[in-house]
Design a protein that fits this description.
The protein has helices at 24-29, 43-58, 70-79, 96-105, 126-131, 144-150, 152-157; strands spanning 2-4, 13-16, 34-39, 62-67, 84-88, 114-118, 136-139. The chain has 158 residues and is α/β, with parallel strands linked by helices. The protein has a single domain (2-157), classed as Rossmann fold, CATH 3.40.50.2300. A seven-stranded mixed beta sheet has the order 1-2-4-3-5-6-7. Helix 2 links the parallel strand 3 (34-39) and strand 4. Helix 2 crosses helix 6 (144-150) and helix 3 packs parallel to helix 4. The longest helix is centred in the first third of the chain and has 16 residues, at 43-58. The protein is globular. The termini are far apart. The structure holds magnesium ion. Magnesium ion (MG) is lined by residues 40-42, 88, 90-91.
C-alpha cells in the first residue's frame, strides 16, 4: 500500500507493508516501527536499499519514506518523523552534502542518524559528509550482510 504525500514531489511517498514476523532487530532496538528515509535520485537504488534493509532483518515494522533529492528529503522531514536516514551523495537539485548542511541549518531530524550511500567516485566526499554530521556510510554495491553489520549498529547507538 502506497500513500502519496499531497504536498510533495511524486517520488515522496510512504510505503508501509505488513511483513512476516521478524522481531529480532525490533526487539533489540525496542522499537515497534523503524521509519527510514531513503534518499537517492535512482528509484532502482532506493528499492535496492529497501530490500537490503528487509533482508538484514528489519522487515517487520519497517516504514519507508523515499525522496529523489536532498530538497525532497527536507520536505519529507517537515511532515514526518523518522528513525534513520540513508542518503546518496551525488544527486541533482540538492546533493547529499548540502542536504546534511540544510538538516543542521533548519534543525530538521535532530539526533536522527544519517548514513551515506557512496560510490567509489564519491568516496572523497565521505570525510566531508562525516564532518557535516553523517554517522557512517555504506558503499555501493553493498550486501544485506554489510547493511546488517554497518547500518543497524548505528541505529542502535542513536
Ligand atoms: Mg546518485
Amino acid at each position: 500500500m502506497r500513500r502519496q504525500f499531497r504536498s510533495m514531489g511524486k517520488l515522496a511517498f510512504k510505503n508501509k507493508r505488513r511483513a512476516p514476523i521478524n522481531a529480532l532487530w525490533r526487539g533489540n532496538l525496542g522499537m515497534s516501527e523503524i521509519r527510514t528515509l531513503i534518499v537517492d535520485d535512482s528509484s532502482v537504488m532506493r528499492k535496492i536499499v529497501e530490500r537490503a534493509l528487509r533482508q538484514a532483518g528489519l522487515d517487520d515494522g519497517l516504514v519507508v519514506y523515499e525522496a529523489g533529492s536532498g530538497a525532497e528529503a527536507l520536505e519529507v522531514l517537515k511532515g514526518a518523523q523518522v528513525d534513520m536516514i540513508l542518503s546518496d551523495i551525488n544527486m541533482p537539485v540538492m546533493d547529499g552534502l548540502e542536504f546534511l548542511r540544510q538538516l543542521k541549518a533548519q534543525n530538521l531530524a535532530p539526533g536522527v542518524p544519517v548514513i551515506m550511500i557512496t560510490t567509489e567516485s564519491s568516496e572523497e566526499h565521505v570525510k566531508q559528509a562525516i564532518q557535516c554530521g553523517a554517522v557512517g556510510y555504506i558503499r555501493k554495491p553493498f550486501t544485506a550482510e554489510q547493511v546488517k553489520e554497518r547500518v543497524l549498529p548505528l541505529l542502535t547507538a542513536a
